[in-house]
Specification:
By secondary structure, this protein is an alpha+beta fold. It is built from 16 helices and 20 strands. The strands form 5 sheets. Strands 5-6-1-7-8 form a 5-stranded mixed sheet. A hairpin with a 2-residue loop joins strand 5 (115-119) and strand 6. Helix 5 (94-111) packs antiparallel against helix 6 (137-152), helix 11 (226-233) crosses helix 12 (235-244) and helix 13 (275-295) crosses helix 14 (328-342). The protein is globular and about 80 Å long. 46% of the residues are buried.
């Protein structure tokens, strides 16, 4: 039997990392909140919370002003509001974020064609494939930040290293608006003092297991033998952390647009209790997940269920078929089995279903082979950790952990008069490609926050419809026949409070209108307004 030390050396020697810092990670700072502050001048410099506004709403993004009061992403909105009562609370605006995201991704592609979007507000880029040769990382980062600021008025943080792991960690070290370049010879100085929670894959459960080993920093993690980590955390997870503690990550920047998952999740206004109630709710979530699956492949081999309990503990379980299937009944049955395998003895706050290993082709079997496909086989699964509110392993409603997304980034741009792909709220944004639309659709920070209101709260696009109490949400864009564009503060009965302002106007005060006398219409966001178009007297640097 091979000794542990020999196995570890073989493992380390098998990883081929770059010899220069050429992997760049860009992360837009407090993206959703920053877009809201950009489009709503009266909120600049003020605390802003973006997320669900219902009793079970969660914070998608907190502005830096709100963070100073203790609010943060993934926190229950009710708690964030108690910590920061002065904050403006706004629902997510899918179309606005898609428009800004498209500009940022296009700026990255000006630098290098090798861009891998991770989510709507972050991406990797391979500087080694830049036209004209590899730029100096500091120069590339400065160019990106200046160009994004020029076109959007937003700030981004940039990390550069010889691997995805190091680049992503680096981008988070000097937020907001920071640049950190970690050259190979400096990796240990940067990584070893960091809290072990900085390492991707170390969530609450893993952190607890590591603390029992005396591991609190990356340096502590590196001192652990491979055998200890695999026995404590399992073969795959232990091996991965052993390598990451050494900065060893040879994953390439992947520009493929193949989608790997499709799913849906729902937070409930009241905790679900009892097996029958939970299974009925699962069917509703599966219905939406199946709609996405139909758009993105049609068949799947693995079904993953996520169950979050009232105490916020989360468990995932999966069921895997021998071959991909597109049969609704089989997929629905697998989702039910996975949920039951997770256990539903405690009150359930959230349910999610995701289909993985997508395929355009389902397995067709003759009757004589039907017994081979009577029931899916159950995969070996366990309770998974979360990383920054996202599951580290096989939950993928957010393509933020290496998952690619669908769309063809190499095709010609659509004509400017053509509507863009449909977003989750039913709107479309001209100029937004399928990749960015998919990022919006799958971002659990957006979809989860919206569903925490009342399912999909507006029931599809409300653009063009009169504003009413039933379809009003704080932050949505509206237009008045003479007063122009503004955004909803709140609506009570037939009385609407609105601020009439845009990125091109001075900050506005709230105005109260009688909707019978002064009707308002819900409209799509105006899009990205470059700072150069803002009147000089209104610019931030004026």
């Amino acid at each position: 039997m091979e000794r542990g030390g020999d196995q570890a050396r073989r493992l380390v020697d098998a990883v081929r990392v770059r010899d220069a810092a050429t992997v760049l990670h860009l992360d837009a700072d407090a993206f959703f909140a920053a877009v809201e502050q950009r489009d709503k001048p009266s909120l600049r410099g003020k605390p802003v919370l973006v997320g669900g506004v219902g009793g079970r709403g969660v914070v998608s993004t907190a502005s830096y002003e709100a963070r100073r009061a203790g609010a943060r992403s993934a926190m229950p909105m009710a708690r964030a509001r108690r910590l920061c009562p002065a904050a403006a609370v706004l629902v997510p605006r899918f179309a606005a974020y898609a428009a800004y995201s498209q500009v940022i991704m296009d700026v990255l592609r000006e630098l290098t064609p090798a861009v891998e979007p991770l989510s709507i507000d972050e991406a990797f880029a391979d500087l080694a494939l830049a036209p004209g040769g590899t730029p100096e990382p500091e120069d590339a980062a400065a160019q990106l930040q200046a160009r994004v600021a020029e076109l959007t008025g937003l700030t981004v943080s940039v990390g550069v290293g010889r691997s995805k792991l190091v680049a992503k960690i680096a981008s988070d070290l000097r937020k907001p608006g920071g640049v950190v370049v970690v050259r190979p010879e400096d990796e240990d100085d940067v990584l070893l003092p960091l809290d072990v929670r900085t390492v991707p894959g170390v969530g609450p459960a893993t952190q607890g297991a590591l603390e029992r080993l005396g591991v609190r920093t990356v340096a502590d993690l590196r001192r652990q033998p491979l055998d200890t980590l695999t026995m404590t955390l399992g073969e795959a997870h232990g091996t991965g952390l052993y390598l990451m503690s050494r900065g060893l990550d040879d994953r390439p920047v992947v520009t493929t647009t193949e989608r790997k998952s499709a799913g849906a999740e729902r937070t409930f206004a009241v905790d679900l209790r009892g097996r029958d109630v939970v299974l009925s709710a699962v069917d509703d979530v599966v219905d939406e997940a199946l709609q996405r699956l139909e758009r993105h492949g049609g068949a799947a081999r693995t079904v993953v269920a996520k169950v979050r309990y009232a105490d916020f503990s989360t468990v995932t379980r999966s069921v895997t078929f021998p071959h991909p299937t597109a049969a609704d009944a089989d997929l629905r049955d697998a989702a039910r089995r996975a949920v039951l395998a997770a256990g539903v003895v405690e009150p359930v706050r959230l349910l999610g279903v995701a289909f993985h290993a997508l395929s355009p082709h389902a397995q067709l079997a003759l009757d004589l082979d039907a017994h081979l496909f009577d029931a899916p086989r159950r995969a070996v699964v366990g309770e998974h950790d979360h990383v920054s509110g996202r599951l580290a392993d096989d939950w993928a409603t957010v393509p933020g952990d290496g998952d690619a997304v669908d769309g063809d980034g190499d095709g010609e741009a659509d004509d400017a008069t053509t509507s863009g792909p449909a977003l989750p709220d039913g709107t479309s944004v001209p100029g937004v490609d399928d990749v960015v639309a998919a990022l919006v659709e799958d971002d659990a920070r957006l979809v989860g926050a919206e569903k925490a209101v009342v399912g999909r709260p507006l029931g599809g696009s409300q653009v063009g419809r009169p504003l009413e109490e039933s379809n009003a949400r704080p932050g949505l864009d509206v237009e008045h026949a003479t007063l122009g564009r503004g955004w909803v503060v709140h609506v009570r009965g037939r009385e609407a409070t609105v601020r009439f302002e845009t990125a091109l106007t001075p900050p506005a005060r709230s105005r109260v209108l009688d909707l019978d006398e002064d009707p308002l219409v819900l409209v799509e966001p105006v899009g990205v307004t470059p700072p150069s178009q803002v009147p000089p007297a209104l610019r931030d640097d004026a």
